[in-house]
Amino acid sequence: MSPEEILRLAGKAKSAGCSEALLTLGERPDVYAEVMERLEALGYGNIVDYLVDICKSLLELGLLPHTNAGTLGKRELRKLRRYNASMGMMLECVAKLPAHRDSPGKDPKVRLRTIAAAGRLRIPFTTGLLVGIGESRRDRISSLLEIKKLHERYGHIQEIIIQPFVPKPNTPMSNHPPPTKEEVLSTVISARSLMPEMNIQVPPNLVSDIGSFLRAGANDLGGISSVTPDFINPGNPWPTVEELKSSIIKSGFIPRERLPIYPRYAKDPSFMSPEVRAIVLQMVDKDGYRRELR
Question: Exposure check for the chain: N or C terminus, fewer CB within 10 A?
Fold first, then answer.
């Protein structure tokens, strides 16, 4: 997308009451010639410089960027940190799996290095597991323990997403079955047991019976949009805000809206650049959640 296209969409999002702008790319798209041609036509020599400019413009508009650009080096993360409220990258799994054979960026050692580098830079970070891609239960526990170890060292993991794999047409795993509800639920239970204080997220458009996941230990349902679909899982539409609130309340919980930077980090200036902090202070309440819209 051109910067102009992004800002037009961001303007609609701002008018609709959104707080977060999610920038998600997959794995280093600038390794492809056609992507580089497009970037050069827009005046950029690489994907990170493009993202930095986009994030800066989004922040000036009053939206908080959250960038998920796959594996990045420390220098790249530092450049993006200035204009991002938080960043993320799914670990997926610490085991080397056939599903990742043709994707060098999915190497768990490379991904763990990126998450650790974000910790050293004090970037509030989102990561998680992709359940149902050929891993065992032992692999899932090992993955959670690696995330726990990084968080104990750096204190920067703000949430862990437990995401079920969704097969998609025209992909190598189009015929691979998705995980059962029980597999995803047991992973949530394990995550909550291993990390009692962690925020555990399940995507509300990818699980059924949200209440069972909340009772199992999930306490976050991620971001939803009234402006765009879930581009990662376009066949799974977002619930509306009212539908989500109703499911939460029926399950015996009280919904609160957070920003893409979680309350703990929203109250700690060391986890934000001055540019990000200026916008966060306009949007946050005394508890670190989003201030109610009037």
Answer: C
